[in-house]
Amino acid sequence: MTVHALPTQTHSEVIRQTKIHLAAALRLAVHDGFDEGIDNHFTVSVPGREDQYMVLPFGTHWSEASASNLMVFNEAGDTLEGKGVVELSARSIHAPLHRISGAKVVLHTHQPWALALNMLKDNRLLPATQTAAFFHGRIAYDDTYTGLAASLNEGERLASLLDGKSVMFLKNHGVITVGDTVAQAYRLLYKLEKACRTQVLAMSTGQPIHILEEHVIEKVRTPSKDDSYSRTEREKLYFEAMMRVLDRINPGYAD
């Protein structure tokens, strides 16, 4: 019997796929209501060049993102590929987060329901739903808003608070998710917004919120060995499904 090796992607194919996924995530953020037009930033380390980062040039609306109009910058703020200048907050927040945390993907938004929760004096996400329980113990909290990010010190401060977690709440500011893939980080962002929305809605009733018991929370957080799909497979399937949605409503991200 002849065994055929599975085809592997070339380095250039990996970079192109990464660009396509980043552009898709930016357009999805518009679809999901996470964007602020041209503000906030999604960044991804260039595969094989972890000290260089892909980003949408400032001034381009997120709905216009495509694989071909992304640029590459470094921590010094130099444009290494593409056209445009990296916006100061992107360099100040994202570059140190990539460097210090080792995250390949850093997504930062001011999405409305997460920001609404972060406006509260007590902004902790409560493990009161299945979705929220998934995040329990996995969120870092920055309780001190320091104003607009204008230096690398701010990103370094945030990186020290992240401390191995994949989500950060920025009080009076927004949220950050990090991950190994765009699919992973974006699915976290999507599920986080759902969890924040349900909590804010529940809080608006003025009724007590029922917190799940610890053993139930742990059951939600721990993948079952009998599950048909791993977490990585679920992230991949989710993102592929959402790219098919984009293909219908806002195609062109792969151009």
Task: Give structural notes.
Helix 6 (182-204) crosses helix 8. The chain has helices at 11-31, 88-101, 112-118, 130-135, 152-162, 182-204, 214-221, 231-249; strands at 41-46, 49-55, 71-74, 79-81, 105-109, 139-142, 167-170, 174-179. By secondary structure, it is α+β, with helices and mostly antiparallel strands. The chain has 8 helices and 8 strands; from the N terminus they run H-E-E-E-E-H-E-H-H-E-H-E-E-H-H-H. The mean pLDDT is 94. It has a single domain, classed as Class II aldolase/adducin N-terminal domain (L-fuculose-1-phosphate Aldolase, 3-Layer(aba) Sandwich), CATH 3.40.225.10. It has an 8-stranded mixed beta sheet, with helices on both faces.
In CATH terms, what is the architecture?
Answer: 3-Layer(aba) Sandwich
CATH class placement = Alpha Beta
Poorly predicted ranges: none
Q: Which percent range fits the helix content? A: 40-55%
In DSSP terms (H or I, runs of 4 or more residues), the helix count works out at: 8
Summarize the structure.
With 255 residues, the chain is α+β, with helices and mostly antiparallel strands. The protein has eight helices and eight strands; from the N terminus they run H-E-E-E-E-H-E-H-H-E-H-E-E-H-H-H.
Please describe the structure with a list of short key phrases separated by commas or semicolons.
8-stranded mixed β-sheet; 43% helix; L-fuculose-1-phosphate Aldolase; 255 residues; 8 helices; globular; alpha+beta; 15% strand
